[in-house]
Design a protein that fits this description.
about 400 residues; alpha+beta; single chain; 12 strands; Peroxidase, domain 2; globular
Amino acid sequence: MTSAWHACSCKSGNSYTLPIRTWTLSLTQLQNSWGNKFSATMMSARQSLRIAARALRCPTGAGAVRAITTNLKITSVAKSSWQKMVFATGTTGLLIAFVWNAEIAHTLSAKIDWEGAVRKDIVKMIEDEEERRGDGTSIGPTLIRLGFHTSGTYDRTAQNGGSNGACMRFIPEAHYEANQGLSFPRALLEPLQAKYGMSFSDLWTFAAKVAVEEAGGPVIPWRPGRTDADDGSKSVPDGRLPDATQGAAHLRSIFNRMGLNDQEIVALSGGHSMGFCHLDTSGFVGPWTFAPNSFSNEYFRLLVEEKWAPKKTHKGKIWRGPLQYEDSTGNLMMLPTDMALMEDPAFKKWVIAYKEDEELFSKHFAAAFSKLLELGVPFPKEKTSGGSFLAQMKNMLGL
């Protein structure tokens, strides 16, 4: 799908150039989005909408009505920092052109039953996948990793990256080494996106939130309103995610670029209480804790209390993989970036604090993870000079 710029002339002769997506909505879709009042208002335009717009299924659950008649006269134009909307009349009747943007995405996403139906389906997906595997592992930690990797590319100086866009669906981001192994959870979530019509970027981040909570973690503050990119042109350069072979300076470079501080770096690292490293995706192998499906502060306890040594062998053979550390049992592992948290005094004080106070860790993790999931997302302001976008639109429609 592509975007086109349509120049429309208003009654006074001025020209408005509006970015109108080449997606369309039928009257039925508009009715579903805005309710019966909208349907009644638009009833007289039913025939014109049938002629002027083709009903297409949009990947984000909504799109724009495209004016395809000619010689339209603009009768009203609404413009704000978040939206542009044109009301036009022509020989076939009334047409409304919407520009897809963050505020419309937020309004439509808010109508989805996130905490009811969507959460229930994600939990069922996690349970079904765990049963299918039958080895005690869970897809939950991988969903958390998906949420982290789609969000952790944000650059506050360049003002790009982050979860908005869900560019990992496209080349080149899909092929970045750091994202190996994430095509599987993305594929698992696709049926839910098709079912509910939310943006992939909202779905991925919400699934990460649910995975944390279902693992016994804290409630992660979250809100919808992210939009999806049309292609990979907005993918950010490779190398923005943490390199597990590096140390403290690298961690600060990566996370400070996003606007995160030392305390948030350590709190987010506590997510390693869950999950495994896999040879075929990262080159590392093993879990961080003995309960990799559960959220806890066990990661910090093990960092402090265990004796960690470089891994020498694996399944009776010389270990030829990258440097990683193992505990006295040889069953658990830590990465160089994990060990850096104990080697750096500013990081270590938070490791100790979280080891001693699980409630503090949970509180700080929830705040940091929520912040991470929202980095770079242009959420609409609730109020504008003319009220909220929805209020402005209803006022213009006389609802």
